[in-house]
Amino acid sequence: MNVTIYHNPACGTSRNTLAMIRASGVEPEIIEYLIHPPTREKLTALIANTGEGSRALLRKKGTPYDELGLDDTSLSDDALIDAMLAYPILINRPIVITSKGTKLCRPSELVLAILENPNIGDFTKEDGEIIKAK
Fold it and tell me: What is the pLDDT of residues 50-74, one digit of tens each?
């Protein structure tokens, strides 16, 4: 199974998701999106493929979200995408792509729904939370 993760190694949720992917037996393609941000075309496709909408992929914490006034609900999807392209830190993470779909994996265990082998056993996140095998 080909798996791609839009990853920020400074993010615990992103690290947990990456560890879960690896525990499933897959070594994913890792795109550190702060170093290699997606193009407009790719970001638009990611948003569409998650089915969540552009606002759902906006990160607020630790970003210029407030300074840019991105809480304004009258802003168009294009305006939100422009902001994410100008400030990639605004793109929420991790976003994972598999043959089963594209998903914003917050919380990290959401990745299990799109892995070919989600049976990774009990998994302990960095914060000590245990995800029980089903």
Answer: 999 999 999 999 999 999 999 999 9
